Amino acid sequence: MIEKIEKTDAEWRASLTPEEYRILRQKGTERAFSGEYWQTDTPGVYRCAGCGMELFTSDAKFESGCGWPSFDRPFAEERIDEHRDTSFGMVRTEVTCSRCGGHLGHVFPDGPTSTGLRYCINSPSIRLEPQK
Q1: Integer Cα distance of 42 and 130 in angstroms
Q2: CATH number of the domain where residue 15 is located
Q3: Residue 62 included in any domain
Q4: How far apart are CA 82 and CA 96, in angstroms?
Q5: Is residue 80 very low, low, confident or very high in pLDDT (cuts 50, 70, 90)?
Q6: Distance (Å, rounded) from C-alpha 23 to C-alpha 6?
Q7: CA–CA distance, 104 with 97 (Å, rounded to integer)
Q8: Is the pTM of this model over 0.85?
Q9: Which one, of 61, 19, 73, lies nearest residue 37 by Cα?
Q10: Overall number of domains in the chain
């Protein structure tokens, strides 16, 4: 079981950049094709920008053409929580970090690999730790 991290709003604001806070805590999004990692192919592990937990690996990353970093599976299923999202007149599945609850992006059932999944993740919600 993953131990939860809880902070006050002031603590989150102090520990995150304004853009990380907007996305992770206020469920924002970055503009398509603008994020740091959408074209990155550096081998490594992508960690939650809010709490540092490993969320995705570069082995699961693929170019989806959607403009956001896309992965076909998480590092481990228990590290991602899914929630029904009906904002903006759409029905989607939001994904959040299971440790800190930070908004990561959305998952869609149209991925090109055997998982059939496409996790579209906002670059400011993750940090790449390059493989050594």
Answers
A1: 7
A2: 2.170.150.20
A3: yes
A4: 6
A5: very high
A6: 17
A7: 7
A8: yes
A9: 61
A10: 1
Question: Is 2 domain-assigned?
Answer: no
What are the start-end ranges of the H helices in the chain?
9-15, 18-24
Task: Flag whether 125 is in a domain.
Answer: yes
Q: Is the pLDDT of residue 45 over 90?
A: yes
**Pair of tokens at residue 69:** 């970093």
CB contact burial 49-66 (16+ within 10 A = b; e otherwise):
bbbebebbbbebbeebee
Distance of CA 58 to the CA centre of its chain: 13
What is the set of active-site residues?
Answer: 120
**Counting Cβ atoms within 10 Å, is residue 120 exposed (0-12), middle (13-18) or buried (19+)?**
buried
Q: What residues does 107 pair with on adjacent strands?
A: 93, 119
Classify residue 7 by burial, with Cβ atoms within 10 Å: 0-12, 13-18, 19+.
middle
Alpha-carbon distances, residue 71 vs 4, 16, 24, 65, 123 (angstroms): 24, 24, 18, 12, 12
The answer to the question of residue 1 being in a domain is no
- What amino acid is encoded at 96 in this protein? T
DSSP string, 25-42: TT---PPTT-STTTT---
Mapped onto helix, strand or coil, the DSSP state of residue 59 is helix
